[in-house]
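Example 4.3 (complexes with small molecules)
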Amino acid sequence: MQNFSSTNRNDILNQLAENQFDILIIGGGITGAGIALDAASRGLKTALIEKNDFASGTSNKSTKLIHGGLRYLKQLEFKLVREVGQERKIVHRMAPNLVVAEKMLLPFTRGGSFGKFSTSIGLWIYDFLAGVKAKDRRQLLSKEQTLEKEPLLDAAEILGGGYYVEYRTDDSRLTVEIVKAATRHGAVCGNYFSAQDFVYENGRVTGLVCSDQFSAKVFTIRSKVVVNATGPWVDQLRKIDKSLNKKRLFLSKGAHLVISRKKFPLSQAIYFDAGDGRMIFCIPRHRSVYVGTTDTPYTGDPDIVKANLEDINYLLSAVNRVFPSAHLNVKDVESSWAGLRPLIYEEGKLAREMSRKDEIFVSPSGLISIAGGKLTGFRKMAEKVVDLVISKKQGQKLRSKTREISLSGNNLQSAADVQRFKENILPLLKNSALEADWADYLVFNYGENARLILEKMQNYSHLPEINLGLAEAWYCIHFEFAVKALDFFNRRTGRLYFYTDSVTTLLEPVLDEFQKQFFWTEERRAAERNEVMEAMYAAQNFSD
Ligand code: FAD
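Answer. The structure with flavin-adenine dinucleotide bound is encoded below.
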């Protein structure tokens, strides 16, 4: 894992500039990361560049579910439901600490869009397509059982519920783990390197002009094949390649908000009708609950996407309608995020009706672009792209191996292993004076590497939660390519969304750690502080 330290940045730049690659991927979201892992593990000489931090685009703004997409069943997309349903099993096995089973409650209400009979059949098909084991298959609950699972529901409205299995993850941590795994398989991956232009020979794309955000160095990367996996930015690069045609992206914005469990003590993940036919998730996560999402057309700058007051009010009123005792208002929102779905445009359809299927475009210059799809289907999307890249003959020798890869590079193979490991580290938490519930956070985020962080905590002598933050910052700098303080607070730990208080208490100590590791000037330190504070402000304040 040594070559995944951000202190090796110059080496990465040199490797990118000096080698000729078989495949060069633009975009370090889940799609690009998955392609890098698939290609490198098949033995291709692989490079990946990301203009910001890994997972700084949509892959940090999703509902964070690895799911079969029950809503796609409503759109009769059986093949898609089946494919992603099968994929969840594989992705869970690849990272059982980070992709965890979460029982979901689907209440039926008077006049709601889900009835007992249709839900029963729908969930049965859903489980069947996803190959869910008998013990985890859907159950139908009576009114009393439904209210027992979630007492905050409105007893006057509830008729019963469906109870079925989904998987919860952290999208940006999953992306970072995939980039790390690709690096372990020999890929050269760098964040804060931006694709500026393509290099052509005889009309074929043979490389990229790339710039480094920190040194402002501009250099060329040579590669036999270039893949554009830039999500909402895919058309921008197709435009540079002069290959943007009628087939275009349609960007749809989705917002989420986070509320403390102290204010909204939800016991159970729940999927309910917002009242306008759209479905909303409320998902407990450690000390918070998050709620999402909206689905509205977006034509603004993909680099600046934010939840506005309308998004927040829409989500709050949906929650208040179904949980009347919650009385939530804007002041209760601790944090929020909004992201763009890079959908493939279909004439005459509303945002929410457009397919979430992925699609590959190959331009006359040979540039391969991939868009659409879902977090859940990243492995299969990657397999399709790499199959296309390698010749048929090679294809027989070089089949995709990603389903066998363990993501955190550790020995946790199942939910039972994860549980045992959590219990094993409890004494370490006690030694560090941390409350036991931090075990969930640590193991979910870092798998077996949690032990390394807990051991490192012994080097610090502040309050326990500050020692934890510092040990995590050290780990993220040396093993997870965190270059900026915001990489740490947002993409590596999710503290910006789920532990907002800790951002305030940890900001200066974490800036100290980064400054020490990277020899930052005071000016750079101030700029980093501002960036974190601006991100906090944007997550907590909403305009019309
Ligand atoms: P991105 O994550 O956006 O990555 C593209 C990357 O390219 C960015 O990091 C960007 O910085 C980089 N880039 C752009 N231009 C350049 C350049 N010039 N040079 C270098 N890099 C560049 N899917 C699920 O399976 N489950 C869910 O629960 C779920 N919920 C969702 C909820 C919402 C609100 C949204 C919006 C999506 C959701 N999805 C979900 C879908 C899923 O999040 C996306 O399909 C997926 O994250 C897209 O990943 P990507 O890598 O294609 O794009």
